[in-house]
C-alpha cells in the first residue's frame, strides 16, 4: 500500500486503476488506509499494555467506528493475516526468539526403576550435588527449519568468561557466550542478542526484505532500545498476547521441553557412569549443551513447532483451535481390557515340561551362569568406562581456572562474545602459557647451567684439594723414605764401625 501511494505521488496525472492493478491493491478490500491501520494497532497495543488485549469483536467494532461503516465477517482474520503479505514477508524471514534457564545440577522429575524392597524401606535416593548455579540460553528458530546460534549467559560476578567454561569449544562451533551476576537475561542482553547475533546472521538471508521476529512480552524484548534498533534495520517485532506463549510460541510448543528432557538424560548419564563422583558444574555445561542442542534443535522439530502453532504455513483456524480447544465428551462405553493370548500359555507349558528333564535342568543352569557372568561383565565394563572418564574430568577439575579478559573492550555491562573471539582469547591465553612455560624452561636451563657450573667448581676444588693432599702425602712419603734411608745408613755405618772395632781387637789379641 505504501509503495502504491508513493508511486501515485510521483505520477503527473495519477492513474488509480493502473496503480491498483500494478500493486495488487483492490479498493473493495482495503477498508483502512495505512494511517488508520497504525491508529488501530496503536490502540490495540495500549489496551494490551493495560492487561486487556482486545477480542476479535472489539477490533471489528473499532474498525467500523473508524470507517463509519460495516466490515465483512472475515475482516479481522484478513487484517491479522494480511500483515505478512503487506510487508512482503516470506518464510525465510519469520523468526521466533525466547529464553530458557537451566539450573546446572538440578534434574527434572522423571520415572526411576528400583526394587520393591528399596521403595518400601525408603532407602531410594536420587543423587544430585545441589549446585544451583543458573545459565540462560537465548534461542531463535526460523520457519524454514533453521536455528540461529544460541546465546549462553553464565553466572559470573565479573561478567567475564573463564577458560575452563569454554575448554570444550572447538573451531566451527556456533555458540555465543556471556556472563551476568545471576545468569539471567536482561534488557541489555536482549539488545546485544539482537545486535550481535540476530541481525548479522539474518541480514544476508533477508536480502533486503523485512524480517518478522515473534517474541513474548518480556521486557528484554520489548523496550525502546530494542524496538528502535529493530525499526532501523527493517525488523518487525510481533508480540504475542499475554498468557498465550506456551500455546502460540513454536519454541515453547515443540522445542524447549525436548531440550530440557535431553539435558536431564545427559545429567543422568554422567552421574551414573561416574557413580555420582562427578559434580556437574559450568566446566561440563558446554559439553552437555552441545550434545543436547544438536539432538533437539533439528529441522523436523523446528518445522513441527511452526506447524503446530499455525504460524507457518499460516493457519488461523489452527491457532484459534489452540487458544479455544473444544471439550470432547468421554466415551460412553468402557474400554475392553486386553486378554492374555492362549498361544503364550501353550509355549510356557512346553517350556516348563522341557525344563523338568534332569539333563536339561543342568544345561539350563550352565546357561543361567553364563548369562549372569556375561551381564555382570558388561555392567562392570560400562561402569569402568564411566569411572575412567570421571577420573579424567576430576583431574581437569583440579586445574585453576582463569579469566579470558574479554570484558572491558566495549565498556558495556552485557556482552555476547562470538565463538571466534572466544577461541582467539583462548589462543592468546595458550600463547601466554607457552611463553611462560618457555620462560620457565629457560630459567630451569639457566638454573641447571649454574648448578652444573657450581658443581664443576666444587669438583675442581675437591680435585685441587686431593692433588694437594696427594702432594703432601707424596712429600711425606719421600721424607719418610729419606729418613728411613738415613736410619738404615746410620745403622749400616754403626755395624761397620762395630765390625772394624771387633777386627782391630782381634788383630791386637793375635799380636800378643
UniProtKB/TrEMBL annotation:
<dbReference type="InterPro" id="IPR050863">
    <property type="entry name" value="CenT-Element_Derived"/>
</dbReference>
<dbReference type="InterPro" id="IPR006600">
    <property type="entry name" value="HTH_CenpB_DNA-bd_dom"/>
</dbReference>
<dbReference type="GO" id="GO:0005634">
    <property type="term" value="C:nucleus"/>
</dbReference>
<protein>
    <recommendedName>
        <fullName>HTH CENPB-type domain-containing protein</fullName>
    </recommendedName>
</protein>
<dbReference type="InterPro" id="IPR036397">
    <property type="entry name" value="RNaseH_sf"/>
</dbReference>
<feature type="coiled-coil region">
    <location>
        <begin position="425"/>
        <end position="512"/>
    </location>
</feature>
<dbReference type="Pfam" id="PF03184">
    <property type="entry name" value="DDE_1"/>
</dbReference>
<dbReference type="GO" id="GO:0003677">
    <property type="term" value="F:DNA binding"/>
</dbReference>
<keyword id="KW-0238">DNA-binding</keyword>
<dbReference type="InterPro" id="IPR004875">
    <property type="entry name" value="DDE_SF_endonuclease_dom"/>
</dbReference>
<feature type="domain" description="HTH CENPB-type">
    <location>
        <begin position="24"/>
        <end position="89"/>
    </location>
</feature>
<keyword id="KW-0175">Coiled coil</keyword>
<dbReference type="Pfam" id="PF03221">
    <property type="entry name" value="HTH_Tnp_Tc5"/>
</dbReference>
Amino acid at each position: 500500500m505504501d509503495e502504491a501511494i508513493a508511486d501515485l505521488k510521483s505520477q503527473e496525472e495519477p492513474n488509480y486503476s493502473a496503480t491498483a492493478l500494478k500493486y495488487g491493491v483492490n479498493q473493495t478490500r482495503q477498508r483502512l488506509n495505512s494511517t488508520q491501520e497504525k491508529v488501530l494497532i496503536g490502540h490495540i497495543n495500549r489496551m494490551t499494555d493495560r492487561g486487556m488485549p482486545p477480542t476479535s469483536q472489539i477490533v471489528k467494532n473499532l474498525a467500523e467506528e473508524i470507517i463509519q461503516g460495516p466490515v465483512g465477517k472475515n475482516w479481522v482474520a484478513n487484517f491479522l493475516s494480511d500483515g505478512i503479505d503487506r510487508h512482503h514477508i516470506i518464510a525465510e524471514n519469520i523468526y521466533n526468539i525466547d529464553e530458557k534457564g537451566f539450573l546446572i545440577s538440578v534434574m527434572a522429575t522423571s520415572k526411576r526403576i528400583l526394587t520393591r524392597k528399596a521403595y518400601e524401606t525408603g532407602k531410594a535416593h536420587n543423587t544430585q550435588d545441589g549446585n544451583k548455579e543458573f545459565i540462560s540460553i537465548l534461542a531463535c528458530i526460523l520457519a524454514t527449519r533453521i536455528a540461529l546460534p544460541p546465546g549462553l549467559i553464565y553466572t559470573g560476578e565479573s561478567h567475564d568468561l573463564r577458560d575452563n567454561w569454554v575448554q570444550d569449544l572447538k573451531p566451527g562451533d556456533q555458540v555465543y557466550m556471556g556472563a551476568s551476576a545471576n545468569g539471567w537475561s536482561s534488557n541489555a542482553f536482549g539488545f546485544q542478542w539482537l545486535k550481535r547475533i540476530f541481525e548479522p546472521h539474518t541480514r544476508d538471508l533477508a536480502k533486503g526484505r523485512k524480517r518478522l521476529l515473534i517474541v513474548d512480552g518480556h521486557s528484554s524484548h520489548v523496550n525502546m532500545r530494542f524496538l528502535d534498533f529493530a525499526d532501523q534495520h527493517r525488523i518487525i517485532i510481533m508480540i504475542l498476547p499475554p498468557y498465550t506463549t506456551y500455546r502460540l510460541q513454536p519454541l515453547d510448543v515443540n522445542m524447549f521441553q525436548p531440550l530440557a528432557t535431553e539435558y536431564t538424560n545427559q545429567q543422568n548419564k554422567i552421574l551414573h557412569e561416574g557413580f555420582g563422583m562427578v559434580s556437574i558444574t559450568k566446566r561440563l555445561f558446554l559439553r552437555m549443551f552441545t550434545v543436547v542442542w544438536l539432538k533437539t534443535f533439528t529441522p523436523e522439530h523446528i518445522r513441527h513447532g511452526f506447524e503446530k502453532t499455525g504460524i507457518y504455513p499460516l493457519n488461523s483456524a489452527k491457532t484459534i483451535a489452540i487458544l479455544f480447544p473444544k471439550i470432547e465428551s468421554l466415551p460412553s462405553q468402557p474400554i475392553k481390557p486386553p486378554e492374555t493370548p492362549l498361544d503364550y500359555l501353550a509355549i510356557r507349558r512346553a517350556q516348563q515340561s522341557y525344563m523338568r528333564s534332569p539333563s536339561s535342568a543342568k544345561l539350563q543352569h550352565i546357561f543361567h551362569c553364563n548369562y549372569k557372568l556375561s551381564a555382570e561383565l558388561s555392567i562392570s565394563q560400562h561402569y569402568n568406562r564411566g569411572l575412567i572418564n570421571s577420573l579424567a574430568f576430576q583431574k581437569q577439575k583440579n586445574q585453576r581456572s582463569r579469566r579470558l579478559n574479554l570484558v572491558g573492550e566495549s565498556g558495556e555491562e552485557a556482552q555476547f562474545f562470538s565463538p571466534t573471539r572466544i577461541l582467539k582469547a583462548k589462543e592468546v591465553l595458550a600463547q601466554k602459557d607457552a611463553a611462560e612455560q618457555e620462560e620457565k624452561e629457560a630459567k630451569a636451563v639457566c638454573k641447571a647451567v649454574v648448578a652444573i657450573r657450581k658443581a664443576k667448581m666444587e669438583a675442581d676444588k675437591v680435585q685441587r684439594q686431593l692433588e694437594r693432599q696427594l702432594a703432601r702425602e707424596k712429600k711425606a712419603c719421600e721424607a719418610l723414605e729419606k729418613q728411613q734411608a738415613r736410619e738404615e745408613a746410620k745403622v749400616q755405618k754403626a755395624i761397620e764401625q762395630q765390625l772394624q772395632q771387633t777386627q782391630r781387637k782381634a788383630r791386637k789379641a793375635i799380636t800378643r
